[in-house]
Design brief:
The structure holds 3 protein chains of 3 kinds. Chain A is an alpha/beta fold. Helices cover about 35% and strands about 25% of the residues of chain A. In chain A, strands 6-7-8-3-9-10 form a 6-stranded mixed sheet, with helices on both faces. A 4-stranded antiparallel sheet of chain A has the order 2-1-4-5, with helices on one face. The chains are: A alpha/beta, B mainly alpha, C alpha+beta.
Chain lengths: ~230, ~280, ~325
Amino acid sequence: MSEPILVCDKLCKSYKKGVPVLNNFDFTVEPGRIIGLLGPNGCGKSTLLKLIAGLLVPDCGEITVCGIKRSEETNKYISYLPERPYFSTRMSVDEMISFFKEFYADFDELIARKMLFDLGINPKSQVKTLSKGTKEKVQLILVMSRRAKLYMLDEPIGGVDPAARDYILSTIIGNYNEEASVIITTHLIADIEPVLNDFAFMYQGKIHMSGDADETRNTYGKSLDQLFREVFRC
Amino acid sequence: MLKKCFKYDFKSVFKIWWIAAVTVLGLSVPAGIAYESLREHFKDPARRFIWENSAVGAFWFSVMAILILTSVLVAVRFYINFFSDEGYLTFTLPVKRSTLLFSKILSGFVFYALTALVVVVSLAVIGLFVPAVGESYSCLTAEVLCEFILIFKEVPLKDILWIIAYALELVLMAILSPLVSTLFLYTLITLGATIAKRHKVAATIGLMVGSNYLLSALIIPVVLAIGLWVNATLHLFSDKMLGEYDWMYFVLFAFLFVIAVLATVCAFLGNVIQGCLERKLNLP
Amino acid sequence: MKKLISVFVVLVLFSLFLLPVGASAEENQWTLIDDGKTLIHGFKEYEPYNNPPDWIYFPEGDIYLYEMDYSGDTYEHEYVSVVPSDTDIVKLHFNETVYVTKEGKEKLDRFKNGEYSFYLLCYDHNIVKPFEYSDFSSFMIEENLTEIDVTTVWNNDIFEVRAFDASGIFAHNCGAVYRIENDYYYVHYDTLPNSYFDAYGGFSYRQGIVPAYKLNENAVKFVESARFSSLARIENYVYPEEKAFLGEDDNAAAAITFWALIILFGFIVPAVPLVLSVIFANSKRVINKKRWYFLTAASALWIISTVGILASLYHH
């Protein structure tokens, strides 16, 4: 049995005193799985991804990526797509490709250029001239063009049109390394459900419910979306 | 990784900075002509007045502009790359925070040095147009070089070592001084971005204004303390100092003291910034 | 951590209290008003004093010269001469006018009336020997009263007897000892009529025969000893503004200032980052500990350079 790609052990994080976002949070990701991290707004999904990406420091607990304690070195194994547009607006798409190529040894330029070509995006255009949807596609293309061990996509399909959503999902499935894992956070469960291997419902800083997506659907006789609505009924 | 980071930091600022540099260098030519033309071409005082003031005025304005622009570009690059949405890209790179910070410090320092160089070169260009100054350049260079060779031939080895030691200390002070101001600027930006959840730029500006007042208030007692100490030292040691006193060691250690103070301030500010980047990163 | 900060604050305050407290409390602004009829200094008022012309301004030690804004007839700026031991009597340095407070006027009036405070035997200009009234009065023994011709003595050894007022500032030659061959004769000026003096109050040697006391053996020994055991009465003009930083011309104040500042800025201040950096470098919460060692090294260099400065100053 290969070692897990990600282990989060008793993670705690709070932004204000006495208001924990993550509370003794345990989470493990095995290789080769696409996991949906699902939950209502403010349950800590983005916070968890930021902790794994190194953008936040946990108050307690430990994070291990590919057996290595979380540090700048583990960034080599993680390909992170945040919720917000984060590319430099003064650079062109070509320059962003060069940037990724320089800093990430696992970046595959050919795949990136092919995907850009498929989408009809001119690599010479400046990022600031692209529409919001196109920007998100470009970001996703560059993130998925890496041969990383762990892909973390924070709300990858929120705010884009349905056609783009389909493209993004097909890109995720078509391009990720099968020995790698993907964590996707979203509240558009119905759209993402078809691609998921595993799921985890998060609530108030803890895993409320998790498991294999297919098995759960068979057990409960419902889609994950329906199950989510039942569990988190207001 | 430092080389890569520095390359992108440099390119990012250089994209805009080079325009200002070319402007300054370009305006130095009409400014130089304006000085020269005073004597020969414009007999009419009114035309001379207009030509001189517009050309020379434009040149000095461009010098002020590049000095301000460099600080603004360096500060903006630091802020955007670390504390705006671009921070998500920056801090997920497989690069240590210390390397990212050092790259910013280095690029800031390089641009301050380049700006100084541009200003010096532009003044030299103006000087070429003024005959007396232009002629003296060539004589000065040759004379200075001859002097240097003579010094190193005739001065005893022990004294040459002292000169080298002092020169090293002066170089260190010249490097550390702009480094302190760069780090101070970065610290204020970091603290402003860390403390304020929303209006980070406003918080940074507030800190800059406040720190200006604080430094102005602190400078008076510090200068007074230095004056008191120097007075007291001269009073206590005047007999010794007026006699055969070897000043070399005192000057050496006094310079070292200044270097140590500057280095401590740099190290402290660097640690503050890095501590905030590690533990208090407050991305949007 | 809180204890460390409290200790540091206490040390800083302690060092600051060691510093001498500013310049002397006395205001050093002197102003003439009412066309020179009144001299003001702080809360004190002085009025001019009409001293006899033969009085000699002869204080010992520091005489402080305070620059005034007043421009006299001849000089751009007048100075006020002040003897610190008695500030009731002052003098304008260049035009020589004496100004006194009420107390100063009383002292000088008493002096004018012949109340002398102490005497100095003055051998050569300012080479003086103090002597008691009992010794002085031994100069004037009635049996030894005689006459001498002063037209021949002005070039001989002369020992002037200077009497001082209570402040020790002004002196009046009340007499002089003249050496004629192997004998000494004392002429007491105070008992002589005005005709024996010139317009400036100085003794006139053209008067010829004057009464004089021949000195006895003991008196002669005393006078001769003045030749060898006199000391210079030295006046030292001082510009107080130059001393304002240290308050008084005092090695102790300079030493305290020197050590207080060097201890504060050379040892205590760098000790703070040194200690903090060592604490943080060993703290579990700190992610990158190595960076704190740069601060440790810089602070240590600060302290070492301070030691170097002290060594270079005290090295023999």
